[in-house]
Structures are given as structure tokens and as C-alpha cells.
Amino acid sequence: MDEGSELSLTIAHIVQRLKGSHLHSQIERRAKECLHQPDIKLDSLKEDVRSFLKTSGWERQLQNAVYRELQVQLPPSHPAAPPEHLKEPLAYMRAAQVSLSLLISVTPHSLSLSLSLSLYDFRDIDPVVVVVVVVCFLSPRYHGIRSQVVLNVCVCVCVLSLTQAGWEKRVLKSLNSMSTELGVPLARMRPAAEQKELANKWNEMGTDEPDLTSVRPVYAPKDFLEVLVSLRNPNHDSSEDVSVRSHWGLIQVPLNVRDIPQLRRAYSELNLTSGQLGIDDHAHIHPDLFENEYVQIGKKVVMEQDSAAAQQYSRQGCSTGLRADLWALILNSNNQPQDVMHYEQLTAGVIQHDLLVDNLIYKDVKLTASNDDYYFVFEDFLYQVLLCFSRDTAVLEHFKYNSATPPRSFVQGKGGEEECAVVYPPNGVIPFHGFSMYVAPLCFLYNEPSKLYSVFREMYIRYFFRLHSISSSPSGIVSLCLQFERLLQTHLPQLFYHLRQIGAQPLRIAFKWMVRAFSGYLSTDQLLLLWDRILGYDSLEVVAVLAAAVFAFRAENLMEVTSLGSAEAVLADLSTLKVMPLIQIFLFAMAI
Questions:
Q1: What is the radius of gyration, based on Cα positions, of the chain?
Q2: Along the 592 residues of the chain, how does pLDDT read in single tens digits?
Q3: Among 426, 499, 431, 500, which residue's Cα sits nearest to residue 467?
Q4: Contact 120, 97 (CB under 8 A)
Q5: CB 388 within 8 A of CB 343
Q6: pTM over cut 0.70
Q7: In Å, how far are 9, 280, 370 from 74, measured between CA atoms?
Q8: What is the rounded distance in angstroms from the CA atom of residue 569 to the CA atom of residue 562?
Q9: H-type helices in 245-355, by residue range?
Q10: Mutual orientation of helices 337-352 and 449-462 as an angle, nearest 10°?
């Protein structure tokens, strides 16, 4: 597809998305109303209406909405492509795995690949995929080494997708087992008396939660890590004797991740000569040198209500007084009356229906945020936001570009009938241990529940979902783990080898930081500075960089440890660390 066709498809996709939005109807109504104004002339109607929309601020709102769609839109594709082909490559290549396994056995290339066909459902084979793969592999231009490279990539993403599907089944099975063991249905209508009681204590939910002694998290980050560690590309030889540092780590999937020179180019605004909030706003530096001018620029960005400018500004950090407005602007989360109404409808849904996942939410908040010195005061907010989030079917939209698929259950008494299958929970997201920590830091910025909810939902569907989905995305957890290990292996090989030899693989320590984007591990002010950069660069890569930088900072102490326990003790407390100096030094001051 050429550049012109891609642009046309992108424009058509965005127009189609915005046509059904509330913003479109508002702009249409305003445009009709302005026709009655005396300064609108018939001979210059188009220009006059456009000028009115610009001066009244609607043009800027439309620009921000378009920018938001550009951040989350699917890659350009053929208009006739089925929905499963619009997901990330690893998801729509699930069927291709079967085709590859069949094809390789009849092609003349001697490639060692052993796959069990019993793992795959032949009903899902797409004939188009089969044709494409056959053409690629039987064409002379793909013979030899090039064929091996293409095959490695194809098999790699297919293996990822199969692992994701298996993980989803495992999580749903765990949830169903809990339902059976506790004798609690997945969902039920609350009696009228219970509804009234919950409505009365909505703002004090932390004072009277249900009995949670028998409730356990469906899974914890360490369980998810074991799944990632088991990932293997069957066409990639990862035996100990074929390579050196590349096989020291736990992640053995050959994905492309950036090295230090590439990261320096991508994160050039973080270099040592650029001013940074988190460094240059400290007390010993005169505010006139950086902070005052930078804050004034931030105020102008907020006043202009420009999402793209706010994102660029966030790359060097957001000041405390402007951060809430800047983040909402970047995420195009305006908290309009329709957003408040949507939140109230979700609240009514919580009051009317009880879900089994509600107990998982209560349990998680109790185990994490309620025991955190920074976040325990926000317990009620967390319950409100997360319970509403579990009912929000608008979250399902992100599964169009998420490698995962929403879990499904069956209406009681209708098991096995596909037409009776429903997404459960309604938002398609089963909370795991630590999930509430995605919301907790945002409570410092927003004290209005509907606004807090709107920002969190947008943060989740843009970033956080990638931290617990198996995908080939550069911001996905698999790539982040691989990038972390590659950075340490390349720039601190002695440290990495030492920790490996004593049974303290660095990733086993750092994984819990990365899967939460460091929430609950850094002090809140430092965490928000880190999330500034996530929003500013529209990427989670900086999380892997910080994890590597922490190991580099504590390298001297880590070289003295002799066990996993002592290594974990050295890295147990990150609350005193300063995020931006660590990242800057690791990226721009280390010799390469």
C-alpha cells in the first residue's frame, strides 16, 4: 500500500469514527445555529461557518479529537479486511500458524521446525493467509537466508498469539473455578434492600466491604512472568552453545528492541543539556534559570487547549499545578456533561448488579493500595472507579488493537450455545493482583470521580493494557522485558552474569516494577514525573530504561550479593530514588 492510499484510509477511518461521536453532533448543531447570525453571508457561507467554528473553539476541539484518534487508531488496512485482521500482527496471524506448519513440511527448504498440529483449530484457517504464505515461501526471492528470517518473524508472532490465547483460557478457568468453589455466581441482581444500602454508602465503601477471606487474586505478576519465560520460537535455536550474552536472559523471543544509540535519538529531549522538571526545578537551582519560564509555557499550552502541544511539553515534565490539566488535554479527556452522565450510568449499574470480579477488586485494593502509605486515603475513590470500570463496555473498543480477546461466559443454563455467550466482565478485563495501582497515583491529580474515571480509562486503553497482554508491540510487556535484559547485558555484562550465576535473574526482580509501571514502588512525585514521559513520548519504553538504570545505580552493592534474597533486599526500597537523573545518566552519560 503506497503512502497516498495509507493516508486516504487513515482519513476515512478517522472520519468514520468521529461521525458517530457526540462532538460531531455538537459541531453540526453549532454550525446550523450560526446560520442565523447576520455576519454569515450566503456567498461566503463555507468560509464564514469555518471562521465561526474556529473563533468559538470548536475547531480546536475537533483537532484534539483527531489527534486522539491518531494515537489509538489501527494501522492502515484494506477496507474489506475482517475485524480479526485489524488487530496487532500476532493476533491476526493466529490462523497463519497452522498454515505455516502445513506449508513448511512440503517446501524444499530444510528448516527445523517441529509443531504439534493438535494445538490448532483448522476451522480458523483463512484461505487468504494460506495463499499469501504460499506465495512468499515458494517464490525464489525468499529462498535461503531471507526465507529463514521471514519465517522466524512469522513463527515468533504466531507463538506469541498462541501463548496469549492459552493464558486467557487459564485466567478464565481460574475465575470459573473460584465461582464454583465459593458458590457465588459470576453475576446477580442485587435485592432492593441491598441496592439501597450500597447507594447510601457509595462514598464510604471502604468501611464495609464483604468477607474476602476465601477470595484470592486470579493471578499475580509472578504467574504472568512464568508464562512469558516459557515463550519460545520453535524455529529459533536457543541452546546454550550457539551464542553468548543474547541467551543469558529469561526472554527468548527474538523481537526488535531499541539499543542505547536508538534510544538517545528517540528521547533526545531528555539529554543532559535540556532542562527537565525533576532535575532543574530543585531548590538549589534558581527558578529563573528554567522553572519559571517553563511553567509559563505550560500555562499557555493549557490556555490554547492543544493536545499535540501538551504532549510535546510533557516530554520535559509537567509542573504540579498544571499536570492534571495537561494530562487530560493529552488524553482528550474533557469530562463533558455526557461523560459525567456515562459515569453515573455505570454507578447505577454497580448498585443494581453484583459481579464476582467485584470481590477481586475489593481484595486487590485491600492487599495493595490500602497498605500503601501514599494511597490508603484514596480507598473509596479506588472502589468507585474500578467497580465502574468493570461495567464499562466502552473499554471493549481497545480489543480492536489489543492482542488479547475479551473473556466470554454463558448465560446460566445455556452453556455451550454460542448465541448465549456474553463478555464477562462487561469491560472484558479481569483484574489481577496490583491492578488497582494503575488508578491510585491519578487520585493525587483528580478529586472529582467522573474526571478521575475518564482519565484512568483513557490511560488504560492507551498504555496499561499492554503491561498484561502478550504481544509484539514495542510498548508491550514482552518487548519491555527483552529491552531491559538487552540493556543490562550490553552495558553491564559483569553484573548481569553475576546475578545469573547466583540464581538472581534481574528480570525476576524488575518484572513487578514494570508490570505496574513502577506504581507503588517510587514515591508519588517521582512516579508522576515518569508517567509525564510515558504520555509525552506515547510509549512505555522509558519504563524498561528506568528498570535498567536502577540496576546500574545499585550495581556496586549488587556485585556483592550471593543470593536472590540478598539481591531483592538491595532493591527493596525505591522510594528515595530520583527518576530523571537516573534515566538521563543511563541514556546519555554511559559510555557505549
A1: 26
A2: 566 666 676 777 677 777 767 777 777 776 776 766 777 766 677 776 777 677 767 677 777 777 677 777 655 555 566 665 556 554 333 332 223 233 323 333 333 323 232 333 333 333 333 333 434 444 444 444 444 444 454 555 555 666 667 777 778 777 888 888 888 888 889 999 999 999 999 888 777 767 777 888 888 899 899 988 888 766 665 554 445 455 688 988 888 899 999 999 999 999 988 888 877 666 566 666 677 888 999 999 999 988 999 999 999 999 999 999 999 999 998 888 889 999 999 999 999 999 989 999 999 999 998 888 889 899 999 999 999 999 999 999 888 888 788 888 876 655 556 666 788 899 999 999 999 999 999 999 999 999 999 999 999 999 999 999 888 888 999 999 999 999 999 999 999 999 999 999 999 999 999 999 999 999 999 999 999 999 999 999 999 999 999 999 999 999 999 999 999 999 999 999 999 999 999 999 877 6
A3: 431
A4: yes
A5: yes
A6: yes
A7: 11, 38, 37
A8: 11
A9: 260-266, 291-304, 307-314, 323-330, 337-352
A10: 90
Q: Are 172 and 430 in contact (CB under 8 A)?
A: yes
Q: Quick one: CA dihedral 336, 339, 345, 348, positive or negative? A: negative
The contacts found for 57-64 with CB under 8 angstroms, 24 or more apart, are 57/305, 58/26, 58/27, 58/30, 60/304, 60/305, 60/306, 61/23, 61/27, 61/305, 61/334, 62/18, 62/23, 62/27, 63/306, 63/307, 63/308, 64/305, 64/306, 64/307, 64/329, 64/332
Between vectors from CA 326 to CA 320 and to CA 332, what angle results, nearest 5°?
Answer: 150
CA distances from 86 to 74, 80, 81, 331, 458 (A): 7, 10, 7, 23, 20
Cα gap 208→197, rounded to integer Å: 11
- What residues are paired with 421 via a beta bridge? 410
